[in-house]
Amino acid sequence: MSNMIEVSDLQKSFGKLDVLKKVSFNIQAGEAVAVIGPSGSGKSTMLRSLVHLEEITGGSIFIQGKPLVENGKYASGASIREITASMGMVFQHFNLFPHLTVRGNLELAPRMLKRESVKEITTRSENLLSKVGLAEKADVYPAKLSGGQKQRVAIARALMLNPDILLFDEPTSALDPELTGEVLRVIRQLAEENMTMIVVTHEMNFARDVADRVIFMDNGEITESGTPEQIFDHPQQERTRIFLNQETRV
Amino acid sequence: MDYIIQISGPMLEGARTTILLFLIVILVSIPLGFLVTLMAKSVIKPVAWIAHTYIYVMRGTPLLLQLLFFCFGLPQIPVIGEYLVMDRFVAASLGFILNYGAYFAEIFRGGMLSIDKGQHEAAKVLGLSKWQTLRKVILAQMFRVALPAVANESISLVKDTALLYAVAVPELLNYAKTAVNRDFTVTPFVVAGVIYLLMTLVLTLFFKALEKRFKFE
After folding, report:
1. What is the spatial distance between Cα A112 and Cα A201, in angstroms, rounded to a whole number?
2. ipTM for the complex?
3. Alpha carbons A125 and A58: distance in angstroms, whole number
4. What is the pLDDT of residues B45-103, one digit of tens each?
5. Cα(B117)–Cα(A95) distance, integer angstroms
6. Per DSSP, which regions of chain A are E strands?
7. DSSP reduced 3-state for A115
8. Which residues in B lie closer than 8 A to residue A143 (C-beta atoms)?
9. Chain A residues with CB within 8 Å of chain B CB
């Protein structure tokens, strides 16, 4: 079995506050995993530590068998860059570059990395924009886009680098409810194409429909994980039940 | 009318010095200010400390004092003073550059602060190096935010060039004052005022156009 991501005993503390307490999990190739749980449970911190946007204080992270951090000791700067390059990330607030057009947002990183010809890059950016349904917006600046369109551009931008793993940090939390559908459709399509992905989300229906596996986090720990049926229909833990009741009521 | 035409010649001559000083100072102090901004943000403490001290000193003392210091103060320093005698225009340019560099540094620092940290994060996850991020992501956005303040400083600079008067470098105001004393009339001051207004008008229009160009919409 090929583990794309292996996390063991991940710890992170801000001073006295333990944000992550010995979190361990594996993600297999082609798996779509939803991470749910109350605000402040450490979901985003866990996700961000995978791409080195957060420094962890203890534990290990292996990406495709390579140690990003092993027993709290990070790899060299060059290795970190190489290892995290296989992962793309989509943020809650899109983080598009406002001074670049949609096309410019997609093409900036590949053009900087200079691994392929400009022709290849522009062809791919056009294909990906069509894929997320925004081909006609290529020359528009992000300021002119709706939230849902921005997030679809952000997904296309992340895909430009052909990542093996895609991480979503609450991709629809900043959107108006009527705009979440168009973004979730794109993520669903990627899941159907067997992209390995971790989605931190508050969209319970989406987690249930799209995820192969659901991880429930509370208070810096993974307290329960399993198939969507196990988690949503037969939660074993009281905390999971309370959370799901609250989420489904609103 | 004839009189205005008659004095306009020498006054425009003076305005040339004004414009030359303006261009030298703008072209050097903007990059200097940017460099100081980067130094102020450096993780190497002494570097950041030097930048902050420089900004504090240049903003905390009068520009006129700085100009007098560079033109007449430096040569008075024991031992090394004799090597520090510069052409007064050069010395004054240096004073202006250092003074405006400090203000531009603060303007750019403000521009940097306005950039969301999500921009750095997105760039990092996309595999851009720190240097690439600065060049391709941060700089353009910082410049956009700083533009109105840069315009403001530039217009201040046009007017501050009149301080050359105090270090006896002949420029626009100097010619005007000479003409007033010589001809017993207020007209040269009015003409000088109009020339300053024309210069600031050009700048105002230039920065308006720049702002439009960098709207990103």
Report:
1. 31
2. 0.92
3. 39
4. 999 999 999 999 999 999 999 999 999 998 888 888 888 888 899 999 999 999 999 99
5. 9
6. 3-14, 17-28, 32-36, 58-63, 66-70, 73-74, 87-90, 165-169, 196-200, 213-218, 221-226
7. coil
8. 216-217
9. 51-53, 81, 84-85, 87-89, 91, 93, 95-99, 108-109, 112-113, 141, 143-144, 157-158, 161
